Amino acid sequence: MAMRDLLSAEEIEAAVGAFSAAESFCHKKFFEMVGLKKKSQEDIKKIFHILDKDQSGFIEENELKFILKGFTPNGRDLSDKETKTLLAAGDKDGDGKIGTD
Residues at the annotated binding site for Ca(2+)? Predict the structure, then answer.
């Protein structure tokens, strides 16, 4: 399954484009722009599994750096600072990775 099977190509491109400048990434706004807030839990889990490149059941810091490329190949890499901010927001139990919950 591809990301564009679950989310609008137009929304993906607009969201990735909105954060093309270095140090501009805001995960809350990005996820809202791509339409995640309108998706069911089932669809969100499917998207999670697409982003979980090593299929470990978790999204680790090294995968988060490339999260925009998980939505579209022309997405930029996140900076270390942006990656750590995103990890801190999603890592609810402090284990250094983000689970599906």
Answer: 52, 54, 56, 58, 63, 91, 93, 95, 97
Neighbours of 97 (CB within 10 A): 19
Return phi, psi of residue 58, to 5°.
Answer: -140, 155
**Whole-prediction pTM:** 0.91
- Judge residue 47's burial from the number of C-beta atoms within 10 Å of its C-beta, 0-12 exposed, 13-18 middle, 19 or more buried: buried
For the annotated binding site, the residues are 52, 54, 56, 58, 63, 91, 93, 95, 97
Q: What digits encode the pLDDT tens for the residues 14-53? A: 999 999 999 999 999 999 999 999 999 999 999 999 999 9
